[in-house]
Design a protein that fits this description.
The chain is mainly α. It has a domain at 34-138. 41% of the residues lie in helices and 8% in strands. The protein contains 7 helices and 3 strands, in the order αααββαααβα. It has helices at residues 34-50, 54-63, 70-74, 90-107, 112-115, 126-130, 147-150, and strands at residues 77-81, 86-87, 133-137. The chain has a 3-stranded antiparallel sheet. It is globular and about 45 Å long. Bound molecules: zinc ion.
Length: 154
């Protein structure tokens, strides 16, 4: 299979190793860059502080169903379920953000989990592996679920 975005051979992978195209998604949807991922962590931290945590939580619960967190919404990023090849649903986001990240924090050494994406072929963090998710940039909200599916708890 050739990558629809750059034309390089990208057989049997979830993402193109040359341009970052997510091969399970429409052409033009690329993995978020390392810079954007780290920028997202920083922005998330700022948003949590500025909203005293509670505001962030309410905001997050309203948009989890579209595969986003507050920082990801601001930065036009989206978490994708690899199996379903579409935006992660509410419970997958809940699992990824709270359960997977907490478990990894307990067993991790220093900040290594945050840097995992630097050497991962699909720029996955460990919590992405636990939740089987990818993080892509979705500048035009192309992958936003239809409102009916938005409440789908998949
Ligand atoms: Zn490519």
């Amino acid at each position: 299979m050739n990558c629809p975005t750059c034309g390089q051979v990208a057989a049997g992978d979830v993402s193109c190793q040359f341009c970052g195209q997510a091969l399970i998604l429409p052409p033009g949807i690329l993995l978020s860059t390392v810079g954007r991922r780290f920028g997202g962590y920083l922005l998330e931290f700022v948003l949590v502080i500025c909203t005293l945590g509670l505001g962030w939580l309410i905001w997050a619960f309203m948009i989890f169903g579209g595969g986003q967190t507050p920082a990801k919404q601001v930065l036009h990023m989206r978490v994708i379920s690899i199996q379903q090849a579409r935006a992660a649903g509410w419970w997958r986001m809940f699992f990824r953000e709270f359960i997977a990240k907490t478990l990894i924090a307990f067993v991790s050494v220093f900040l290594i989990p945050y840097f995992w994406l630097l050497w991962d072929r699909n720029r996955q963090e460990l919590w992405d592996k636990m939740a089987t998710t990818l993080v892509v940039s979705d500048p035009t909200d192309q992958l936003r679920p239809h409102s009916r599916e938005y409440t789908d708890s998949s």
